[in-house]
Specification:
globular, alpha+beta, 7 strands, 159 residues
Length: 159
């Protein structure tokens, strides 16, 4: 039987360090994060949003940035996991950690936005399947948020 992947999750406030790690991880995922303007916005948001880092030793292998919209509602703004760590529990651990953190602070609902199924990208089909597997349900798909790309809004109860 394979040994479980050894990694840890750390909480980190928005900072230049978090922005640098975010930029490095986005560079490793060009098929998911291939729009330079969007990547620049994600990196900038890492200077001010709270985040979680997954790391194996000194190597950052995943990042999750989130924001609170209301006392009862939060959103995963960005999640990126290094390709060599896909399907090894990193994404699930990041989602579980943020869910636990916001629940402890009174949050009842967590949302995430991702590319909708009207777009044929196979990578995002896997992304949607991942979010379903960790408890998110589709709420709405809209063409009004991201010009030229369908946005699927998914939600999860923080129980």
């Amino acid at each position: 039987m394979d040994e479980p992947a050894a990694f840890q999750i750390s909480r980190i406030t928005g900072s230049a360090e978090l922005a640098e790690v975010t930029a490095r991880l986005l560079d490793r995922l060009p098929t998911w994060f291939g729009i330079p303007e969007a990547n620049a916005e994600y990196v900038e948001s890492a200077t001010r949003l709270p985040g979680l880092l997954a790391h194996a030793g000194a190597e950052a292998i995943g990042v999750l940035l989130y924001r609170r919209h209301f006392a009862e509602a939060a959103e995963i703004h960005l999640m990126a996991v290094s390709p060599g760590w896909h399907r090894r529990g990193v994404g699930r651990a990041l989602v579980d950690a943020v869910t636990s953190d916001v629940r402890a602070d009174g949050c009842r609902l967590l949302q995430v936005k991702t590319l909708g199924a009207k777009h044929p990208d196979p990578g995002y089909a896997r992304t949607r399947a991942f979010y379903r597997a960790v408890g998110f349900l589709p709420l709405e798909e809209t063409d009004d948020l991201w010009p030229g790309n369908p946005c699927l809004i998914m939600v999860k109860w923080c129980r």
